[in-house]
């Protein structure tokens, strides 16, 4: 009898201990979740106060969309269907603010994903982009209608990475060449092919000028009205990215007024967009897939980071205006530089004119990204401010 009592007592203690452990673990988990929510609330409150931001919209759709852009005060993208959301394209007017519209479409025999995070154009309720892994331009409209363009050139053009539209023309940067089409006639007007070599030729459109990097390592200015090259400048920078490192493509060319910034692995260049002349350079050594440099040009000043230091330089005189240590440049909003500490523990809000730190804000665990899109700020991929 005593042995049985001892066994029952031991079993009770063991069972009680197990229950206590489970309840304590649950308590710890709930406490940790509460702390995360609290830290995020504090973080968002501090960021919005530091940048004087006003709430615009909240939607979990943004968080599960790999291809978000804001064009003409309309946010759009492709939702990947996570967390019980149906996969599809979405549109939402932010000014005036309207309810988001989710458009589910199916293209014949292929998936409707945009290429490399790039929706190239938006007009009259329709977005245009290169087909993911395909050789077409596609259009998706808010009313659910869709259209493929240039399908008959599938065996000519390989992987339509980036689509830029000007009037009735589409300039497409692909992995085997640059192609310019008449949109209405779906006719190829001009091309420069790369042969058997794959190359992610970076490109940008400014007014009627289409600028791109050729496989020869030159930077080319093409007039889309005349389809004539206006100039071609040797870059003399290392740009032979491995295929796995090409996806920084959207961040490789920046422009402001008549100045274009373009970088390679070993050098950052500024080029006069009218003449093609290289007017400034900064030597560096980067890995695009890791460093993902961001550059901003405002008047005669250029902002960027290199080796964990944030620079503000007057490129006309090459004078250093200010430098901030242990900071990775993320962008500029109003009068402030937004940066992150090298270990990603803090967001830094810095006066863009003086380089003085305004505030340092702790970043919650698991990250809490701030993305500058057009004149808007998206926090945690869910909430839009301005």
Automatic annotation (TrEMBL):
Residue intervals of the Pyrrolo-quinoline quinone repeat domain: 176-325
Protein name: Pyrrolo-quinoline quinone repeat domain-containing protein
Organism encoding this protein: Pedobacter psychrophilus
Signal peptide bounds: none
């Amino acid at each position: 009898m005593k042995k049985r009592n001892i066994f029952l007592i031991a079993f009770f203690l063991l069972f009680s201990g197990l229950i206590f452990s489970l309840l304590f673990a649950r308590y710890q988990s709930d406490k940790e979740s509460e702390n995360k929510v609290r830290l995020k609330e504090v973080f968002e409150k501090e960021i919005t106060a530091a940048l004087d931001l006003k709430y615009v919209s909240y939607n979990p759709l943004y968080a599960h969309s790999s291809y978000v852009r804001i064009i003409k005060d309309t946010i759009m993208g492709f939702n990947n269907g996570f967390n019980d959301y149906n996969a599809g394209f979405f549109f939402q007017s932010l000014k005036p603010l309207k309810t988001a519209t989710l458009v589910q479409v199916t293209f014949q025999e292929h998936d409707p994903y945009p290429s490399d995070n790039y929706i190239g154009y938006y007009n009259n309720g329709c977005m245009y982009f290169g087909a993911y892994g395909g050789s077409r331009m596609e259009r998706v409209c808010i009313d659910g209608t869709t259209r493929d363009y240039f399908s008959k050139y599938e065996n000519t053009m390989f992987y339509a990475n980036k689509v830029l539209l000007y009037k009735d023309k589409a300039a497409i940067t692909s992995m085997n060449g640059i192609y310019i089409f008449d949109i209405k006639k779906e006719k190829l007007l001009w091309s420069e092919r790369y042969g058997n070599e794959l190359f992610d030729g970076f490109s940008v459109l400014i007014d009627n000028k289409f600028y791109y990097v050729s496989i020869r390592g030159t930077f080319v200015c093409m007039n889309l009205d005349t389809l004539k090259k206006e100039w071609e400048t040797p870059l003399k920078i290392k740009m032979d990215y491995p295929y796995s490192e090409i996806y920084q493509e959207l961040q490789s060319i920046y422009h402001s007024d008549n100045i274009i910034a373009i970088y390679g692995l070993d050098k950052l260049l500024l080029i006069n967009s009218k003449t093609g002349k290289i007017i400034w350079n900064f030597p560096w050594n980067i890995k695009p897939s890791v460093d993902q440099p961001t550059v901003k040009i405002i008047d005669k000043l250029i902002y960027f980071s290199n080796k964990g230091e944030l620079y503000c330089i007057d490129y006309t005189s090459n004078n250093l205006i200010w430098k901030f240590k242990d900071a990775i440049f993320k962008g500029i909003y109003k009068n402030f530089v937004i940066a992150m500490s090298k270990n990603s523990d803090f967001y830094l809000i810095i006066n863009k004119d003086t380089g003085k730190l305004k505030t340092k804000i702790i970043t919650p665990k698991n990250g809490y990204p701030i993305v500058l899109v057009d004149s808007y700020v998206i926090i945690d991929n869910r909430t839009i401010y301005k």
